[in-house]
Amino acid sequence: MSTLVFLEHNGSTITKGSLGVLGKAASVDPDTAGVLVGSGVAGLADQAGKYGAAKVFVIDDASLEAPLPQPRVDAIAGLVQAQGFDNVLFAASVLASDIAGGLSSRLGAGLNWDLGDITNDGGELVGRRSALGDTVLVDVGWTATPRLALFRAGSFDPSESGAAGAVENASADVQDFSQGAKLTAQDQEESSGPSIEEADILVTGGRGVGSPEAFSELEDLAKALGGAVASTRAVVDSGWYPYATQIGQTGKVVSPKLYIGAGVSGAIQHKVGMQSSQTIVSINKDGNAPIFEFSDFGVVGDLHEVVPKLTELVKERKG
Amino acid sequence: MKIAVCVKEVPDSGPARKIDPGSKRIDRSGERTLNPFDLNAVEAALKIREAAGDGEVVLISMGQPKALESIRKALAMGADRAVLVSDDAAAGSDLVATSAVLAKAIEKEGAELVIFGQQASDGDGAVMWAAVADRLKMPVISQISELEVSGGNVKAKRQTEFGYDTIEAAVPAVLSVSDAVNEPRFASLKGIMGAKKKPQDVVSLADVGVDAGEAGEAGSKTTVLNLAPPPSRGETVKVEDDGSGAQKVLEFLMERKYV
Question: Does any CB of chain A come closer than 8 Å to the CB of residue B167?
Fold first, then answer.
């Protein structure tokens, strides 16, 4: 068996999610390679080798500079066909999902998405995902190779293996229609903290926070804990906090190590975006809020009292 | 401009949604509705047609014949007609099989713009547009939160994990819009009354030029192996804040080594 992992990068960093999938892939299949696609990305290959890639393919071309999916479908399809990879794995993102969807058609390959885990069952891969609002765990398979898979954000932590993989250059045959969509502007979000998908600790504010100003209480706690602030759909719809911070069915799916919900009720649309968090702590005035049903630790109380007090205690503790 | 909007009937959300243990497919026997995210795609198409002053909005779907009942909701909003590919041989289609069918149906219509909603609420899939675009050899722009279409050009803004991208393309193109792109209109009473009379073609795989072997389970490359209940989260502690709530949270965080 041989496996290829798409290594998404932003600037000069390979995303944590991609490196996590790379490590997982290497544990399932020792013959795992990574592929970097872009312009001026050769320098990133070392990073990948350290995280489990026996080999890193670099497809470096000026036509691949913008983070758009279709030229990458051309590049990766060519590599998969030339090298005969059995599996192509992705950490889910806006870009990776579009690449995986395109590759599915190009290669006539089955794609399973939203996976949280994968195992090698005597040469057959079995993916696991939770479905229907996380009410059922589903084991999924593929009936042919190549197999394509998208993993839910934050499914695996990257782990350094120490070894450095070999680097091999490959070329891309980018088709005309793939260059039809052009990136004409890009605004990187200015944010002081990590993005909510990358943060290990998330302090999430819901409608119960009450006002946009009161989010500063959550920001202080997030800062003290070394985390980021996230929000719910109700908060974003009210214009209290940016859409980029929204967790849930119509926002982002996160699985931080620690999730602290303040004034979050825990509606199903929010739950599907955060319930794979390792530890869930919630603070809510309403003792009947559904979030308490899936919290490890809950406080029934006024968040405007509990959160600032907790911030002070954490600061004291950390000195 | 002819605009195709790909829509899907899904089981109505709520506690009743389940997977049939026998077929390992989503149980579609209960209440059904139009995928709520598709309403944004329909709204986007109607806005483009209205701004241009002419054009046609065609709904394209695959499913059981009774799916027309759900699809009529989009006709009531103002779409002009619907094409439903319905065939016993299409049951159990995965992404590969479904994208093949949809692409053929869209090709037959000769649509210049193809619009999808941001995801299917039943299977949580968010990849269909990319698969269809590759088959149609059209540029794709996904997860659009701001959309302008004028004179055959598409200008779209979208959010990614890292910020905002502005992407442009000339038609023909495939788009997917997020639910932030617009507020879907409510169907008027007149719209609802008129929806039934709008053209609704139920066609077979053969009608759109797809071999039975390309669709359904025969054309699919993925399979469901097993279903299991999700693991329970374990013990839950809930305390009333009597002034010591913050202290108790701190102790819990220290115990779990987050502080």
Answer: yes
% pLDDT > 90, chain B: 79
Q: Is B111 part of a structural domain of the chain? A: yes
Peptide bond into B172 cis (omega under 30): yes
Q: Which residues of chain A are within 8 Å of residue B225 when distances are taken between CB atoms?
A: 126, 139-141
A interface test, pick of B140, B177, B237 with most A CB neighbours within 10 Å: B140
Q: Please state, in angstroms and rounded to a whole number, the distance separating the CA atoms of residues A226 and A235.
A: 22
Q: Is the pLDDT of residue A159 over 90?
A: no
Which residue in B8, B15, B82, B18 sits closest to B39, CA to CA? B8
Q: Which residue of A109, A309, A312 is in closest CB contact with B221?
A: A109
CATH of the domain at B15: 3.40.50.620
Asked if A132's CB is within 8 angstroms of B227's CB, the reply is no
Measured from the Cβ of residue B196, the count of other Cβ atoms closer than 10 Å reads: 11
Does the structure show a pLDDT above 70 at B13? no
Say if the Cβ atoms of A296 and B158 lie within 8 Å: no
**B3 has pLDDT over 60:** yes
B150 touches chain A (CB under 8 A): no
Token digits of residue A143: 């009936």
A3-179 and A201-318: same fold?
A: yes
Q: What is the DSSP letter of A155?
A: S
> Residue B71 is which amino acid?
I
For chain B, give the DSSP string: -EEEEE--EEEPSSTT--B-TTT-SB--SS-EEE-TTHHHHHHHHHHHHHHHS--EEEEEEES-GGGHHHHHHHHHHT--EEEEE--GGGTT--HHHHHHHHHHHHHHHT-SEEEE-S--TTT----HHHHHHHHHT--EEEEEEEEEEETTEEEEEEE-SSEEEEEEEESSEEEEE-TTS--PPPPPHHHHHHHTTS-EEEE-HHHHT--GGGSHHHH--EEEEEEEPPPP----EEEE-SS-HHHHHHHHHHHTT--
Percent of chain A with pLDDT over 70: 97
Mean pLDDT taken over chain A: 92
Interface of B with A in 34-73 (CB under 8 A): none
| Rounded alpha-carbon distances, angstroms, from residue B55 to A199, B80, B139, B155 | 46, 10, 21, 19
Asked if A131 lies within 8 A of B19 by C-beta distance, the reply is yes
Number of domains, chain B: 1
Tokens of A273: 């975006």
- The second-level CATH assignment, the architecture, of A3-179 is 3-Layer(aba) Sandwich (3.40)
Q: What domain range includes position B74?
A: 2-219
pLDDT band with cut points at 50, 70 and 90 for residue A251: confident
- The answer to whether A237 faces chain B, any CB pair under 8 Å, is no
Q: Which residue carries 């490590």 as its tokens?
A: A23
Q: Is B232 within the bounds of a domain?
A: no
Q: Which residues of B touch A134 (CB under 8 A)?
A: 230
Residue pair A158/A20 in contact by the 8 Å Cβ criterion: yes
Residues of A in contact with B155 (CB under 8 A): 184
d(CA A283, CA A289): 10
Q: Is the residue at B187 inside a domain?
A: yes
Q: Does domain A201-318 have CATH number 3.40.50.1220?
A: yes
